[in-house]
Amino acid sequence: MGAALRLPTHTANSNKRQIAQHFAPAIPGVYEPPNDYLHRKNADATTAVLERENERRRSRRSTDDVWCGTSDDEGSARGGLHVSEDHQECGACFEPLCKERTAVFVDESGARTCKHFLHERCARAVCEHIGSVCPICRTAFASARGVPFPTEDANEWFRLCDVDGNGKLDKEQVLTVIRAQIPVDWRKIDKDLGSLWARWDPESSGALGKAQLVGADGLLEFVSKKYPPRLREYKHVPHVTDKRAWFKFWDEDDSGTLEKDEVVRALIKTFGIKDDVAHIQDVRSMVESIWCVFDLDDSGGIDLTEFLLEDGLGDSIMAAFAVDKRAELAQKEDAKASRSPKRPQKK
């Protein structure tokens, strides 16, 4: 994982006992001391953690890769969407999709294997560093295929956007394209799409072809002009040493909890590692390896109390990234002193 991501394993509810054990991404799993929550319920903690880890491995397509994909429970609050889709971001680097060329995953015949879009550079990095599995839905693929702009090659653009290969895009597929390629508030479009749809689908077929989508009179051109641009810039992110503020800042859906994929996204944006897919995978692996220690009730999320515990998830994140709170406070004091006007010395 590298020195920047060394992680001593903690137990979430034992402040005095820690295990001097370090985990690399290829060795997921955490062993808890015998006086933890599960032991108090007359259960063997180590056995329970191992069983949970084995179940997680069986659910993955590859035991060599660690993912923070969305489970059914995690996606329910967002209507089944991965956190990256909800924010119109690349599922690898969590930067806005519309800022760069996108790519999709295809099989040997060139047909789409899943509905997800990534940045083209990130999709190729996934192939190189992680393997042939979509980082969002874990569906296997053969290769990544760059998606041209409609103005460059409308036929190829439509073919790659047509996940089902039936020559039509339904409303959900159109929304997926909008989230990936147009910097507008997709939620507003989702609310209006029912009333707008009839203009391009007068026969109420429930799907649109290429002619209805692209061009000067197409739905996508109308959406681009009618709805104002919307891209959020994260300029004033609280430092992770301010655990309470950091948690509340990244709990953007006000659910009171942070799920695994939300934590991964928050760490990538906090520490500015968006351009290094291999490093991002280390972060995914670190979060996955320690998650079961803190999510003791298997709820899929960590609430504020669990996050703030001494030796809890917040402290573990700081340890993993070698964050020294005293050094951070000293830097703030130095910066404050440098901004203060110097008083003239008395003679």
From TrEMBL:
<dbReference type="InterPro" id="IPR001841">
    <property type="entry name" value="Znf_RING"/>
</dbReference>
<feature type="domain" description="RING-type">
    <location>
        <begin position="90"/>
        <end position="138"/>
    </location>
</feature>
<dbReference type="GO" id="GO:0008270">
    <property type="term" value="F:zinc ion binding"/>
</dbReference>
<feature type="compositionally biased region" description="Basic and acidic residues">
    <location>
        <begin position="50"/>
        <end position="64"/>
    </location>
</feature>
<keyword id="KW-0106">Calcium</keyword>
<dbReference type="InterPro" id="IPR011992">
    <property type="entry name" value="EF-hand-dom_pair"/>
</dbReference>
<keyword id="KW-0862">Zinc</keyword>
<feature type="region of interest" description="Disordered">
    <location>
        <begin position="46"/>
        <end position="80"/>
    </location>
</feature>
<keyword id="KW-0863">Zinc-finger</keyword>
<dbReference type="InterPro" id="IPR002048">
    <property type="entry name" value="EF_hand_dom"/>
</dbReference>
<feature type="domain" description="EF-hand">
    <location>
        <begin position="238"/>
        <end position="273"/>
    </location>
</feature>
<feature type="domain" description="EF-hand">
    <location>
        <begin position="149"/>
        <end position="184"/>
    </location>
</feature>
<dbReference type="InterPro" id="IPR018247">
    <property type="entry name" value="EF_Hand_1_Ca_BS"/>
</dbReference>
<keyword id="KW-0479">Metal-binding</keyword>
<dbReference type="InterPro" id="IPR013083">
    <property type="entry name" value="Znf_RING/FYVE/PHD"/>
</dbReference>
<dbReference type="GO" id="GO:0005509">
    <property type="term" value="F:calcium ion binding"/>
</dbReference>
<protein>
    <recommendedName>
        <fullName>Calmodulin</fullName>
    </recommendedName>
</protein>
<dbReference type="Pfam" id="PF13202">
    <property type="entry name" value="EF-hand_5"/>
</dbReference>
